[in-house]
Amino acid sequence: QKRYERGVYRYLCLPQVVAVYGTLSDLLSVASNKLGIKATSVYNGKGGLIDDIALIRDDDVLFVCEGEPFIDPQTDGRPHEELTGSHTDWLTLNVGGRYFTTTRSTLVNKEPDSMLAHMFKDKDAWGNKQDHRGAFLIDRSPEYFEPILNYLRHGQLIVNDGINLLGVLEEARFFGIDSLIEHLEIAIKNSQPAEDHSPISRKEFVRFLLATPTKSELRCQGLNFSGADLSRLDLRYINFKMANLSRCNLAHANLCCANLERADLSGSVLDCANLQGVKMLCSNAEGASLKGCNFEDPSGLKANLEGANLKGVDMEGSQMTGINLRVATLKNAKLKNCNLRGATLAGTDLENCDLSGCDLQEANLRGSNVKGAIFEEMLTPLHMSQSVR
């Protein structure tokens, strides 16, 4: 507390920590007892008169007096006229080669703890460099500084078209304009387009394909194609890893060597598709139709469907020589008349599968589950060496 009596200032260095409760009158009564004065007014640290105890925050430092006006302890007793006079003189800033004219109070009053306030609160406190015209040199971007200066002038965030808000945000952080930082973060968030999770249409994807050089790797990882008609398209070597291809029409599509690892193909139609050398590790194709597909690569590159979920798929008549279906789930699948010569079916769940008419010569069925599977009219009978359960 600082009190003014008989033309001199008298300091009372009596800091006290008190519990704030009840009404403002209760607080004044407690303060009077603690400080030995007749407290009549309460101010916050910036000189704001408090007339409602609800305005007091937990970390506020309060000043009480016996009725005299608030005097900021930071001023060291200097007359008010001297202080305000030093804060209202005009000055010019040279920011990155562009000149701005403003008052010292504009740079100081709005954000008293900012870098700008510390630079210009006292004349020559920072030894600010000046150019030949006497303007104070600041090596920052002028286009990002202008919105900050206007904010200090009138408290509103106004940014011209074409100005990157991220650049203004970085300047606000550099100069320590804390109250502006929050405004900018909200503005940046609101300016971002809403995430579009809608599926990609055939028209959009074809345009994308035509704009991509044939030798470039096309990455469609994680994209949403749900329900799209991609039939008869050339999709060779495209990366569809973890993409959503559920309920897609991929009939007669060329998916040679495509990466469909962990992709969602549930309910999709891939009838007569070219799947030579395709990678479908751990993919989900439950309920999909793959009738008449070609997985057989003459060059020897094997299709890999290891760990895939193929429950209830219809793969009737598909060419799957040498295919890798290790530990895949084919429960209730239709594999009638499929060519599974040399296929890896170790640990595969073939429960209730229709394998009638299949060619399983040299197929590895070790550890597979064939409970309830149908083997009638099988082209190559199972041998005892092929351990099944």
From TrEMBL:
<dbReference type="InterPro" id="IPR011333">
    <property type="entry name" value="SKP1/BTB/POZ_sf"/>
</dbReference>
<comment type="pathway">
    <text>Protein modification; protein ubiquitination.</text>
</comment>
<feature type="domain" description="KHA">
    <location>
        <begin position="1"/>
        <end position="82"/>
    </location>
</feature>
<dbReference type="GO" id="GO:0051260">
    <property type="term" value="P:protein homooligomerization"/>
</dbReference>
<dbReference type="InterPro" id="IPR000210">
    <property type="entry name" value="BTB/POZ_dom"/>
</dbReference>
<dbReference type="Pfam" id="PF11834">
    <property type="entry name" value="KHA"/>
</dbReference>
<dbReference type="Pfam" id="PF02214">
    <property type="entry name" value="BTB_2"/>
</dbReference>
<dbReference type="InterPro" id="IPR001646">
    <property type="entry name" value="5peptide_repeat"/>
</dbReference>
<dbReference type="InterPro" id="IPR021789">
    <property type="entry name" value="KHA_dom"/>
</dbReference>
<feature type="domain" description="BTB">
    <location>
        <begin position="91"/>
        <end position="161"/>
    </location>
</feature>
<dbReference type="Pfam" id="PF00805">
    <property type="entry name" value="Pentapeptide"/>
</dbReference>
<dbReference type="InterPro" id="IPR003131">
    <property type="entry name" value="T1-type_BTB"/>
</dbReference>
<keyword id="KW-0677">Repeat</keyword>
<protein>
    <recommendedName>
        <fullName>BTB/POZ domain-containing protein KCTD9</fullName>
    </recommendedName>
</protein>
<keyword id="KW-0597">Phosphoprotein</keyword>
<dbReference type="InterPro" id="IPR051082">
    <property type="entry name" value="Pentapeptide-BTB/POZ_domain"/>
</dbReference>
<comment type="function">
    <text>Substrate-specific adapter of a BCR (BTB-CUL3-RBX1) E3 ubiquitin-protein ligase complex, which mediates the ubiquitination of target proteins, leading to their degradation by the proteasome.</text>
</comment>
<keyword id="KW-0833">Ubl conjugation pathway</keyword>
